[in-house]
């Protein structure tokens, strides 16, 4: 009788994403359950969640309302296709999302992740330009240090080097705006920095270079994964003006900033700029079931759908677009955000959170602090010849002391659930301060 030889340990089979697999599996840190503001390890240690999971558990962990909605839907119908078919809960979920989005962005295309949302928005932009008789508009503009997921479209318009360098040339007809990170002008700014609106004028230069071939510009209103880059005052307004001037669509990637993170349902509202499309995921379902979406302006939907000949208008979609369980989770999550006014709670806590973040100024190797809403980035001076080492060691110290933070390069990013209270903020930043001091050398 043949027997399967056991693996050296039961961590081998899972090839972990965005992880130093060898280092992690040699000293694993396992999260076993979660509730409210906390994770719990498999040996029972309580860990404050300073990152809302991965920017996504905005309402806190284990919310009964969402869990029960998923369970109920699973018992009624586990799956139904949305290709030439439909089920009521997907339409209900889309309507709920459309009620939250800015005026005019009334049509919702469901995906399964932020990556899929980015690629979907880019394809819709190309289809729109073709539908309105501008088929020469095939070029997509992203931004340096931008992050739009890991699909080939999102990677191409993204601008984080390590995410791109292993995978070759990616998509053609892509260019990038300069990033807005300028610590020489804006270090230790609270909220939006005063310097940098003119950086949007680089779009004029790209139009001069590429002519009328640009279909869309995609940016994060507040760039998260690259280390919390807050938009300069007037920057997004200028970008909106230039896109209108040149017939270019403006897409906001709100996978992080959507659903209350910076004190409004979407960053577009807080920042006073309405794009032509908004991509979202994460907080859409409170991360209970994977789901993403693209909110699309009426003019785009009308041009592609109403102006098309009979038959399928957009040859794009996913098997799980509008999945019943995800739709149930989205409805419950949106209802929870409204019932508890989670964006309002974030706005109310923002000042205390900001003061706590900037209290780290003056600690060893802290060279910049940036914040908006319930997001903060603490940039560290890296160790010579050892990039990321200092931040990684601080991450480990914080975890061992019962606080989960996130690092990206030598930047610490914090984004707690929107239910965070002052004692949690004190614990997060107090623990982080101790860890920064401990890694001073």
UniProtKB/TrEMBL annotation:
This is Aspartate aminotransferase family protein. Its cofactor is pyridoxal 5'-phosphate. Belongs to the class-III pyridoxal-phosphate-dependent aminotransferase family. The keyword Transferase applies. Keywords: Aminotransferase, Pyridoxal phosphate, Transferase. GO terms for biological process: biotin biosynthetic process. PROSITE patterns: AA_TRANSFER_CLASS_3 (PS00600). PANTHER family: ADENOSYLMETHIONINE-8-AMINO-7-OXONONANOATE AMINOTRANSFERASE, BETA-ALANINE--PYRUVATE AMINOTRANSFERASE. It comes from Limobrevibacterium gyesilva. CDD domains: OAT_like (cd00610). One of its GO terms (molecular function) is pyridoxal phosphate binding.
């Amino acid at each position: 009788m043949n027997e399967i030889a056991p693996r050296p340990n039961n961590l081998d089979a899972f090839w972990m994403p965005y992880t130093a697999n060898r280092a992690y599996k040699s000293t694993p840190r396992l999260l076993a359950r979660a509730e409210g503001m906390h994770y719990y390890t498999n040996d029972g240690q309580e860990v404050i969640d300073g990152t809302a999971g991965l920017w996504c558990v905005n309402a806190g962990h284990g919310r009964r309302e969402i869990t029960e909605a998923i369970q109920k839907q699973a018992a009624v119908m586990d799956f139904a296709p949305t290709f030439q078919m439909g089920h009521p809960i997907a339409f209900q979920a889309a309507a709920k999302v459309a009620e939250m989005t800015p005026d005019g962005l009334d049509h919702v295309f469901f995906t399964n992740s932020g990556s899929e949302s980015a690629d979907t928005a880019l394809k819709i932009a190309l289809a729109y330009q073709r539908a309105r008789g501008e088929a020469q508009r095939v070029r997509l503009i992203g931004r340096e240090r931008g992050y739009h997921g890991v699909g080939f479209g999102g990677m191409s318009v993204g601008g984080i080097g390590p995410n791109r360098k292993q995978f070759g040339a990616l998509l053609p007809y892509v260019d990038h705006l300069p990033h807005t990170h300028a610590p020489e002008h804006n270090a230790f700014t609270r909220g939006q920095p005063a310097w940098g609106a003119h950086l949007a004028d680089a779009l004029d230069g790209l139009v001069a270079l590429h002519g009328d071939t640009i279909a869309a510009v995609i940016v994060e209103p507040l760039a998260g994964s690259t280390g919390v880059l807050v938009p300069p005052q007037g920057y997004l307004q200028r970008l909106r003006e230039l896109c209108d001037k040149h017939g270019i669509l403006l897409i906001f990637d709100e996978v992080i900033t959507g659903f209350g993170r910076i004190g409004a349902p979407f960053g577009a509202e807080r920042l006073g700029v309405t794009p032509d499309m908004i991509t979202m995921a994460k907080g859409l379902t409170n991360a209970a079931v994977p789901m993403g979406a693209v909110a699309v302006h009426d003019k785009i939907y009308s041009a592609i759908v109403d102006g098309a000949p009979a038959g399928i208008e957009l040859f794009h979609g996913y098997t799980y677009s509008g999945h019943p369980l995800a739709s149930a989770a989205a409805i419950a999550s949106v209802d929870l955000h409204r019932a508890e006014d989670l964006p309002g709670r974030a706005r109310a806590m923002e000042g205390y959170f900001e003061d706590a973040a900037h209290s780290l100024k003056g600690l060893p190797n802290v060279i910049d602090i940036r914040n908006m809403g319930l997001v903060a980035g603490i940039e560290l001076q890296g160790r010579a010849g050892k990039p990321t080492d200092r931040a990684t060691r601080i991450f480990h110290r914080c975890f061992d002391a019962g606080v989960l933070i996130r690092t990206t390069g030598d930047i610490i990013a914090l984004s707690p659930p929107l239910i965070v209270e002052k004692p949690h903020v004190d614990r997060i930043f107090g623990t982080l301060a101790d860890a920064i001091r401990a890694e001073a050398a």
